[in-house]
Design brief:
Number of strands: 8
Strand content: 5-15%
Strand order of the largest sheet: 2-1-3-4-8-7
CATH topology: Rossmann fold
Oligomer: single chain
Number of domains: 1
Radius of gyration: 20 Å
Distance between the termini: 60 Å
Shape: globular
CATH architecture: 3-Layer(aba) Sandwich
Length: 370
C-alpha cells in the first residue's frame, strides 16, 4: 500500500510507531497500556456502553444540532445570505460536544476559524450564531466578527481565530492567567494539524511546558491542511511525537465515540488542572465537506470519504439509540425539533437589522461599556 493511499483513506490509521506513516507501520488503533499514550481507540474504551440512554440521547442531540446548523448555514451561503469564508464542522461535531460536556465553570475554549460547533455545544443561542454569519446586529459579536470570529465569554468561548497558529500563545496566556490567579480553570486550545508547523505554535507549547500551565492543546487532525494532505506537511504522521520536547503529556486516538472521547479527554484535563501536567492531544477526525464552502474537495476520493463516514460519531450515536430501543419515530422527532430550531434561527437572522454604521468604530480602544 502506498503512503498516498494509506494516510488519506484509512480511518483507523491512528497510532503508528513514532516516526512512521500509517502505511509503514501497519494501520492500527492506538496501543493499549502505558500512561500518557495510554488506552486503545476511543470506541473500545466502552464509553458509550457506560452511558445511560438519556445521556446518549442528549449527546446525540447536541451533535445533531451542530450538524443541522452547519447544513443550514451551507444552504444560506449558497443563497447569498452569508459573505466571506464559511468553514463547516460537519464530521467533527463529537469533539466540541465531548469538550463542552466535560468543562467546568471557568474553563475556556480558544479555537480556530472552524468555530461554529463549539459555540453551539457551549450553549450559544443558535439564532445569535446564525445572525453573526449573516452579519446582523443581533449576532454573537454584533455581526462584525462573522464566521471565523465567534466569541462568547459568558459561555467559555474565547474566540475563533483566523490566523493559523496565532491563537496558541494567546491560549497559553489564558492558562497563565489561571495559574497566576489560582482559579482552577483549564484552557482547551484547539488547532488543526497544519498549525503544528507554525512558529507561534511552538512558542506557546514551549511556554506551557516550561511553566506547567493548566492547558490542553488539542489537534483536530482531519488529515488535510486546506487541501494539503498530512504526508506533504510532516515527516511523521504522529504529531504528538513533538510533545516530549515541550514536557507535555500526550495522547492520540480516533474520534468515533463521543462518550469515550469525553471520558478520555476529561482525564487528561484533570491532570492539567490538578497535577500541573499540560498536554498535547491529537484527535484523528474527518471533515465531510471541503475546507471551506469554496473548496470542492477534489483532492479526495469518494471511497475515502465513504470509508470515514463509517466512523462518523453521529451515525454511531444513532445506531446505539436504535439498539437501546428508540424507534424511527423517536429519532425523526428529535431531528424534526432540531430542524425547526435551525429554521427559526434563519428566520431570526433574516429579520434582524444590520449593525449601525458607528458600530465599526467600537472595540478598537478600551471603553467603559459594561
Amino acid at each position: 500500500m502506498s503512503r498516498d493511499t494509506a494516510v488519506q483513506a484509512e480511518p483507523a490509521g491512528a497510532a503508528s510507531e513514532h516516526g512512521k506513516f500509517a502505511s509503514d507501520a501497519g494501520v492500527q488503533r492506538p496501543r493499549d497500556g502505558g500512561d500518557e499514550r495510554a488506552g486503545s481507540g476511543a470506541a473500545s474504551e466502552g464509553g458509550a456502553a457506560r452511558a445511560s440512554v438519556d445521556e446518549q440521547r442528549r449527546l446525540y442531540t447536541e451533535m445533531l444540532r451542530i450538524r443541522r446548523f452547519e447544513e443550514t448555514a451551507a444552504r444560506a451561503y449558497t443563497q447569498g445570505k452569508i459573505s466571506g469564508f464559511l468553514h463547516l464542522y460537519i464530521g467533527q461535531e463529537a469533539i466540541a460536544v465531548a469538550t463542552a460536556d466535560l468543562m467546568r465553570p471557568g474553563d475556556r475554549v480558544v479555537t480556530t476559524y472552524r468555530d461554529h460547533g463549539f459555540a453551539i455545544a457551549l450553549g450559544c443561542d443558535s439564532g445569535a450564531c446564525m445572525a453573526e454569519l449573516f452579519g446582523k446586529a443581533t449576532g454573537l459579536v454584533g455581526g462584525v466578527g462573522g464566521s471565523m470570529h465567534f466569541f462568547a465569554r459568558d459561555k467559555g468561548l474565547w474566540g475563533g481565530y483566523a490566523i493559523v497558529g496565532s491563537h496558541v500563545p494567546v491560549a497559553a496566556g489564558h492558562a497563565f492567567a489561571s495559574k497566576y490567579n489560582q482559579d482552577g480553570a483549564v484552557t482547551f486550545c484547539f488547532l488543526g494539524e497544519g498549525a503544528m508547523h507554525i512558529g507561534a505554535t511552538a512558542e506557546g507549547m514551549n511556554l506551557a511546558g516550561l511553566w506547567k500551565l493548566p492547558i490542553v492543546f488539542v489537534i483536530e487532525n482531519n488529515l488535510y491542511a486546506m487541501g494539503t494532505p498530512l504526508r506533504r506537511q510532516s515527516p511523521v504522521d504522529d504529531l504528538t511525537t513533538r510533545a516530549p520536547g515541550w514536557a507535555l503529556d500526550h495522547d492520540r486516538w480516533v474520534v468515533d465515540d463521543v462518550v469515550a472521547t469525553r471520558n478520555r479527554l476529561a482525564r487528561i484535563a484533570e491532570r492539567a488542572r490538578n497535577e500541573e501536567r499540560p498536554a498535547l492531544v491529537e484527535l484523528l477526525t474527518y471533515r465531510f465537506r471541503g475546507h471551506s464552502m469554496s473548496d470542492p474537495g477534489k483532492y479526495r476520493t469518494k471511497e475515502e470519504v465513504d470509508a470515514w463516514r463509517k466512523t462518523d460519531p453521529l451515525a454511531r450515536g444513532e445506531a446505539e439509540l436504535r439498539g437501546a430501543g428508540l424507534s424511527d419515530a423517536d429519532l425523526e422527532s428529535i431531528d424534526a425539533a432540531v430542524v425547526a430550531e435551525m429554521d427559526a434561527a434563519v428566520a431570526f437572522a433574516d429579520a434582524s437589522p444590520p449593525p449601525a454604521p458607528e458600530h465599526r468604530f467600537r472595540h478598537h480602544l478600551v471603553e467603559d461599556d459594561p
